């Protein structure tokens, strides 16, 4: 009972909560005293749904866990099933997957840049990033037939061979130019720096204790990238960007760096794809697909942190229990700590900088 | 308006209409025409902004309603007119309804103070300048009333932010205006404008001796109009829509149009103070050269208005350009920026201007 | 301070240069993007052998096969393309039609005659 506090419901229908996040804020003036994230407005029961569906039926729906990085969840589910069935991917298929995953990562980060700048009140970058993202989506459409819900990976391979790799090379060239542009328009902008520099400091201890992974963690100076131990990325050399700023600005910079890292990976993939021209799928009969009894787990570095999939199978055609771990879920929880004592307009910028995607949180 | 009055009376005398009728109607007709024209310009301004924002982001902007999207604003206004006026149950009905009116009225009054051409000023007093400053700051009251009475926390926050913002930004404006008064030795807008008329054209205008003041007033006007990067009172990513969150239908349209009318008025104001108002940038008007004296005198008024609006639209273009580029400032940085940067700089400007005035030269 | 002003001007100029660039947007109903070859639009059925694979792989249960008719319910279809990918005789093809708005909901249930197509085949 303290009448001096203003209780503010930020969301679930608020322009800058990136979907339907609800933050219950207690404020003194514009200063936030406490923040209580409330999630579940976009809950679709992705985990329970799996228990009723056969594996092949469930596969197209996993893209929808994170609509901005559908390939990652598709890959994750395929990977878990493949590890259970001990399927072997051919080299070409592996590189096709890496190529598409990294393109998807670029698309996801690009959109984040736009949305973050929109949170800060700049309108133009939002459209600029959509312009570049469109090129990726067009390529996805060409390859997979859809722009976002691709459903291109299947258990043991991909649907069909990849083509038109020149488009990707061209895109990478364009992207390099555009990153320069972004740096001039956004990164060097003093107002942008003022809004983000040393705002929302995420201490490495707090980050690790809150299970933060991915770019947010690397921007706090902890070098942890699950791609390094990933079997898909085995023959690919890359250096994940690690920044020491711990603030919103370094989270932004880390994502810009990540665009570069992903471009490097894609370039290597293009080289490898030229070497390995033999396309071979190790397909299974999808209709009566049964996983052996046991527990299967796999993980991948998604754009918003570590994503992992756990399947407990009782030998039936559908999982006994399926569990998704998504990066954003932990970022939302972090808001409790990060927003305390901040002013409202900084709070929006901080929440935006964590790259929260609500469908991924609620599943 | 002597010359026009003379022409009008002559026209009426020809058709045997009593002079009293002419005395009454003479002021009504142009006022009606001008205000209708201004409303059309404001509607065009909204389109102008949306088109420009589109072009800045490689889009086409509105292009559906009418040829090239020219009727888009009209269609939007019509849509808003048809919509239901929702009043929140906790709102203070009287104040809630009063706020949009209080936004729009001063905006129209302000337009009356502007000298559009040498024969065309509605309200011309000795202290025009102060009148403008007072009326252009009045909408903040309506924002406070609207924000407070609509029983919404976001609206309240927006209104409170706006008060803090206006308080911080009025002072640098005052100091910059003082330097203009010193330069022009006048507080009448026409006087200020005529003080800028030299044979050097654009080089004789006050933006050169008073460049710092020009920049300061430009920035402060952005803040006063709640334009980006100072659009904190209606920051859509933080406060949804700020003070007008709960407004819908025609009342929202009044807020919206009021804002744009004020933008136009302030752009006109800046171009009068610093960019020579209706003076031609070449030092000489073109129409007397092209036309004979009788026709030329009438065309001259239009030419003057043309220069004024050209300058105003140039200012608006820059405002929109800034909106397309800049992120929003944080509220405390914004206040700090005004008190710690703009205010000292504007006082410095005053001193510079006084020195320039003292040593004379072109601006003595 | 001066450096910051310079940076602001640079960012203004970099936004301003887009004024001279061509718009990238398409005026949608008049101009349309060409759809690639394997675009996943509305499924089209031809020469079905009634094996039922598509029913088993459809995640949303949009497919129904009766005596000599094949129903695809576009209200349920999520255009995942499982049916066309797993069809053993490639009877289901994803067309490039993607504008599926209709005025009557019943029109969304696509009906394909199986018999007729078989006759044609013979």
Descriptive overview:
- The complex is a heterotrimer of chains A (363), B (364) and C (122).
- With 363 residues, chain A is of the alpha+beta class.
- Chain A has a single domain (45-362), classed as Cytochrome-c3 Hydrogenase, chain B.
- Chain A has helices at residues 46-52, 55-62, 70-85, 91-120, 124-144, 165-187, 190-196, 204-209, 215-218, 248-275, 327-338, 344-353, 358-362; strands at 6-10, 22-28, 31-38, 153-154, 157-158, 294-302, 305-313, 321-325.
- Chain A has a three-stranded antiparallel β-sheet. A three-stranded antiparallel β-sheet of chain A has the order 6-7-8.
- In chain A, a hairpin with a 2-residue loop joins strand 6 and strand 7 (305-313).
- Chain A starts with 5 loop residues before the first strand and ends with a helix.
- Chain B has 364 residues and is mainly alpha-helical.
- Chain B is 68% helix and 0% strand.
- Chain B has helices at residues 2-14, 19-56, 72-82, 93-113, 128-137, 139-149, 153-184, 189-194, 211-224, 249-273, 287-290, 293-325, 331-359.
- In chain B, helix 1 packs across helix 2 (19-56), helix 4 packs parallel to helix 10 (249-273) and helix 7 runs antiparallel to helix 9.
- Chain C has 122 residues and is of the alpha+beta class.
- Chain C has one domain (2-121): Alpha-Beta Plaits, CATH 3.30.70.3270.
- Helix content of chain C is 27%, strand content 16%.
- In chain C, the strands form two sheets. A three-stranded antiparallel β-sheet of chain C has the order 2-3-5.
- In chain C, strand 2 (63-66) and strand 3 (69-73) form a beta hairpin.
- The longest helix of chain C is centred in the N-terminal third of the chain and has 15 residues, at 2-16.
- Chain C is elongated, with a radius of gyration of 24 Å.
- Chain A binds chain C through residues 53-54, 56-61, 124, 131, 134, 138, 141-146, 149, 151, 154, 159-160, 181, 184-186, 188-191, 286-287, and chain C through 4, 7-8, 10-11, 14-15, 18, 24, 33, 35-36, 38-40, 53, 56-59, 78-82, 85-86, 94.
């Amino acid at each position: 009972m303290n009448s001096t506090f203003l209780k503010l419901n930020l969301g679930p229908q608020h322009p800058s909560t990136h979907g339907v996040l609800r933050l219950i804020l207690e404020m003194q003036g514009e200063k936030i005293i406490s923040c209580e994230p409330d999630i579940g407005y976009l809950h679709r029961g992705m985990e329970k749904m799996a228990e009723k569906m056969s594996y092949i039926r469930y596969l197209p729906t996993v893209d929808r866990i994170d609509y901005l990085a559908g390939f990652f969840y598709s890959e994750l589910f395929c990977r878990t099933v493949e590890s259970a069935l001990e399927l072997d991917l051919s080299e070409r298929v592996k590189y096709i997957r890496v190529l598409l995953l990294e393109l998807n990562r670029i698309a996801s980060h690009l959109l984040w840049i736009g949305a973050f700048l929109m949170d800060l009140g700049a309108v133009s970058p939002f459209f600029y990033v959509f312009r570049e993202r469109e090129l990726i989506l067009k390529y996805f459409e060409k390859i997979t037939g859809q722009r976002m819900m691709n459903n291109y990976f299947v258990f043991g391979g991909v649907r069909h061979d990849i083509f038109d790799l020149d488009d990707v090379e061209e895109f990478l060239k364009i992207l390099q130019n555009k990153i320069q542009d972004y740096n001039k328009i956004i990164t060097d902008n003093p107002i942008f720096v003022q809004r983000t520099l040393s705002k929302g400091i995420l201490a490495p201890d707090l980050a690790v204790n809150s299970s933060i992974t991915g770019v947010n963690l690397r921007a706090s100076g902890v070098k942890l990238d699950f791609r390094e131990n990933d079997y898909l990325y085995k023959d690919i050399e890359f250096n994940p960007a690690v920044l020491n700023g711990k603030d919103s600005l370094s989270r932004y910079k880390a994502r810009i760096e990540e665009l570069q890292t992903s471009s490097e990976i894609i370039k290597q993939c293009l080289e490898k794809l030229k070497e390995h021209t033999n396309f071979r799928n190790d397909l299974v009969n999808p209709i009566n697909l049964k996983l052996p009894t046991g527990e299967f787990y796999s993980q991948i570095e998604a754009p918003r942190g570590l994503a992992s999939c756990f399947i407990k199978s009782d030998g039936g055609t559908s999982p006994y229990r399926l569990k998704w771990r998504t990066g954003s879920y932990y970022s939302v929880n972090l808001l409790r700590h990060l927003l305390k004592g901040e002013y409202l307009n900084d709070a929006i910028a901080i929440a935006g900088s964590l790259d929260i995607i609500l469908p991924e949180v609620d599943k | 308006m002597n010359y026009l009055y003379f022409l009008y009376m002559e026209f009426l005398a020809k058709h045997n209409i009593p002079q009293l009728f002419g005395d009454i109607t003479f002021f009504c007709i142009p006022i009606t025409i001008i205000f209708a024209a201004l409303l059309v310009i404001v509607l065009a301004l909204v389109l102008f902004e949306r088109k420009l924002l589109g072009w800045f982001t490689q889009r086409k902007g509105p292009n559906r309603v009418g040829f090239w999207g020219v009727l888009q604003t009209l269609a939007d206004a019509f849509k808003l007119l048809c919509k239901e006026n929702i009043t929140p149950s906790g709102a203070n009905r009287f104040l809630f309804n009063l706020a949009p009116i209080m936004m729009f009225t001063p905006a129209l009054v302000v337009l009356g103070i502007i000298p559009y051409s040498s024969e065309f000023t509605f309200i011309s007093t000795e202290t025009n300048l102060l009148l403008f400053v007072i009326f252009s700051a009045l909408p903040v009251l309506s924002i406070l009333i609207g924000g407070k009475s609509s029983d919404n926390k976001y609206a309240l926050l927006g209104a409170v932010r706006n008060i803090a913002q206006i308080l911080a930004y009025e002072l640098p404006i005052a100091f910059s205006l003082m330097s203009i008064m010193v330069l022009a030795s006048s507080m009448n807008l026409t006087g200020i404008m005529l003080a800028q008329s030299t044979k050097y054209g654009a080089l004789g205008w006050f933006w050169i001796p008073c460049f710092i003041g020009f920049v300061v007033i430009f920035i402060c006007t952005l803040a006063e109009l709640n334009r980006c990067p100072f659009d904190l009172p209606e920051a859509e990513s933080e406060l949804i829509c700020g003070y007008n969150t709960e407004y819908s239908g025609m009342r929202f349209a009044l807020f919206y149009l009021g804002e744009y009318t004020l933008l136009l008025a302030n752009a006109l104001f800046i171009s009068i103070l610093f960019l020579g108002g209706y003076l031609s940038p070449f030092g000489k008007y073109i129409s007397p050269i092209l036309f004979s004296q009788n026709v030329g005198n009438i065309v001259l008024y239009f030419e003057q208005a043309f220069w004024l609006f050209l300058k105003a639209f140039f200012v608006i273009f820059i405002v929109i350009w800034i909106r397309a580029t800049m992120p929003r400032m944080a509220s405390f940085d914004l206040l700090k920026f005004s008190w710690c940067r703009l205010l000292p700089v504007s006082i410095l400007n005053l001193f510079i201007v006084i020195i320039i005035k003292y040593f004379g030269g072109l601006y003595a | 301070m001066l450096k910051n002003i310079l940076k602001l001007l640079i960012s203004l100029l970099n936004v301003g240069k887009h004024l001279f660039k061509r718009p990238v947007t398409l005026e949608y109903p008049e101009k349309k993007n060409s759809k690639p070859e394997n675009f996943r639009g509305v499924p089209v059925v031809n020469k079905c052998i009634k094996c039922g694979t598509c029913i088993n792989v459809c995640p949303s249960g949009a497919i129904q096969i009766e005596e000599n008719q094949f129903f695809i319910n576009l209200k349920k279809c999520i255009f995942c393309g499982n049916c066309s990918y797993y069809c053993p005789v490639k009877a289901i093809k994803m067309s490039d039609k993607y504008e599926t708005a209709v005025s009557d909901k019943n029109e969304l249930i696509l009906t394909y005659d199986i018999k007729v197509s078989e006759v044609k085949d013979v």
